[in-house]
Amino acid sequence: AEREKGANLKEEVAALRRKLLTSENARRKLHNELQELKGNVRVFVRVRPEGGDGQRTVVEVDDDLGTVGVPCRGEFHPFNFDRTFSPRATQDDLFAEVSAYVQSALDGFNVSLFAYGQTGSGKTHTMFGQKSDPGLIPRAIDQILLTVEQESANGWSYQMHASFIEIYNEQVRDLLCSSTEEEGKKHQITQGENGRNDVTGREHC
């Protein structure tokens, strides 16, 4: 009787795991179909606040309409984007919009996110932030580690590798290397047989 009871429990556990995996696969499919409906390429604009006394914002942002208005020669020119963030937007506001991409990466899809703008426009603040107010990169890492921990308890397994590079003045720099280790190294961006881009000689962690 005890043996039969144990066998029944094993069957129930196996059935529940199959059901969980099925529902998780359905969630992944629906989540990424939703992302595709929103658009595979999206452009967000974040307007930084005034940097000091005597400075003022010269554009008008409408977060509801997703427009940035620029006055020029007495006329007002609105530009439309997928999403806009006014100077009042917080790091939390940005990551709430971006976290769906992190989930897509965990679901096995290729995701690329970059900040573009002139010097002093706030790229580093948006991507890195500060210890007291982290940006997108540390928040994304936290989300990845938390999700892996949660999903591991549900029977999923993940293998993660990370590299950290910078392209500055047309030079590729490996930020996981110390300055002495990096000195004299030449990195190149190559494309493998699988079509994926890679950087030669980079460190992994």
Automatic annotation (TrEMBL):
Residues 182-205 are annotated as: Disordered. One of its GO terms (molecular function) is microtubule binding. ATP binds at residues 117-124. Keywords: ATP-binding, Coiled coil, Microtubule, Motor protein, Nucleotide-binding. Residues 40-205 form the Kinesin motor domain. GO terms for biological process: microtubule-based movement. Residues 6-40 form a coiled coil. Residues 195-205 have a biased composition (Basic and acidic residues). Gene3D superfamilies: Kinesin motor domain. It holds the Pfam family Microtub_bd. One of its GO terms (cellular component) is microtubule. It comes from the Eukaryota. InterPro entries: Kinesin-like_fam, Kinesin_motor_dom, Kinesin_motor_dom_sf, P-loop_NTPase, Vik1/Cik1_MT-bd. Belongs to the TRAFAC class myosin-kinesin ATPase superfamily. Kinesin family. This is Kinesin motor domain-containing protein.
